[in-house]
Design the sequence.
């Protein structure tokens, strides 16, 4: 991967998720200044993910046909425009409209990252490239959660100025993409594989392995979004102060960054993929099951385990469409993976909030996360091994 491309994909990852997660820390400011209910402000948080779910498959289909540079370039420009426009919003209607524009750009860009990686010459190292590609995700999320409130205080609590500052990464990402990235080659038609729209859709939706992979991604996003959304509350319910709860919870994100770079290299060295799905699922099962009984002062150890397992499973899931489908249809496959998967990311936190409202606790949510983590491990056992070692065994 060239240095230009490394820079672009890292800044894209940061731009995406810093813009998504900067809303949550200043939600009280937005609600107060625009006289909004918490239900209304929750739409500002969930709308980008909903747009990603809606646009992922069409974005992947377009990338398969017109090329990754144009498709992602358009998405990045729209994402940057939505980010900047949010800083001009003066009421809920305009802020929601500009958030929808940003979400459309996000949905047009994110699902095509596997398509981008699939065009690299060394496809057997696609999982390593994917690890580098998604390393910007926890970086952007961590920056948003850690720096947005201090930034807002420095800007006298003006949410518009906060949005303007956090739009800079999106502007840099869009500009860098168009200036630094050359058009990657389209995969040629191989073995007479039909490339029509209906044929691509039919092959994707009848691919049992892709459905299994999408099911794991649904579970992963359900658990990941639930954990990131409610971990500080879980810590406070265990007796931690608000400051320490946020600090301990952030350990999960920071541990993910080196893991996203190292886990794919280990997978490549071993030559296997499946263990990097089912082993993290088992680790998460144990972590969720035992979290209630871990002393507060040792909770950071659990956060480290969850960060490592979460990052390992995520980067493996993102890279597998490259190995499960033909190169001409990676966009469609990754779009399906993102659309189904991020539906779980919308549903998970909602269920957690409902459980907290009814029971005053998140114990039931931890039980739910434990059960679905077991399900993820079982489903992972049914996915075919696509690593180099398995391919060599088939040849021999």
Sequence:
């Amino acid at each position: 991967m060239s240095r230009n491309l490394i820079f672009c994909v890292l800044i894209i990852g940061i731009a995406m998720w810093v813009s998504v997660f900067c809303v949550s820390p200043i939600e009280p400011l937005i609600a107060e200044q625009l006289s909004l209910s918490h239900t209304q402000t929750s739409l500002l948080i969930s709308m980008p993910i909903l747009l990603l779910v809606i646009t992922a498959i069409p974005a992947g289909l377009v990338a398969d046909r017109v090329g990754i540079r144009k498709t992602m370039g358009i998405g990045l420009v729209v994402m940057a425009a939505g980010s900047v426009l949010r800083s001009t919003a003066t009421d809920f209607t305009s802020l929601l409209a500009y958030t929808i524009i940003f979400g459309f750009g996000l949905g047009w860009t994110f699902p095509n990252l596997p398509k981008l990686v699939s065009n690299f010459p060394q496809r057997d190292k696609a999982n390593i490239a994917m690890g580098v590609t998604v390393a910007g995700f926890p970086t952007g999320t961590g920056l948003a959660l850690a720096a947005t409130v201090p930034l807002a205080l420095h800007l006298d609590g003006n949410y518009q100025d906060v949005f303007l500052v956090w739009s800079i990464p999106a502007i840099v990402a869009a500009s860098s993409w168009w200036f630094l990235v050359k058009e990657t080659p389209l995969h040629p038609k191989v073995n007479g594989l039909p490339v029509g729209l209906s044929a691509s859709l039919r092959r994707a939706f009848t691919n049992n392995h892709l459905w299994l992979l999408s099911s794991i991604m649904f579970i992963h996003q359900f658990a990941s979004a639930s954990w990131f959304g409610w971990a500080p509350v879980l810590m406070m319910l265990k007796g931690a102060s608000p400051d320490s709860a946020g600090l301990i919870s952030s350990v999960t994100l920071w541990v993910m960054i080196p893991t996203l770079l190292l886990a794919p290299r280990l997978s490549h060295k071993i030559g296997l993929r499946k263990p990097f799905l089912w082993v993290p699922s088992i680790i998460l099962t144990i972590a969720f099951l035992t979290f209630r009984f871990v002393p507060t002062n040792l909770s950071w150890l659990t956060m480290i385990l969850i960060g490592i397992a979460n990052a390992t499973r995520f980067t493996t899931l993102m890279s597998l469409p490259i190995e499960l489908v033909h190169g001409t249809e990676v966009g469609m496959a990754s779009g399906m993976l993102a659309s189904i998967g991020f539906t779980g990311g919308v549903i998970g936190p909602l269920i957690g909030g409902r459980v907290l409202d009814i029971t005053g606790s998140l114990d039931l949510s931890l039980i739910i996360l434990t059960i679905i983590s077991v399900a993820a491990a079982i489903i992972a056992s049914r996915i075919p091994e696509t690593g180099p070692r398995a391919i060599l065994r088939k040849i021999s």
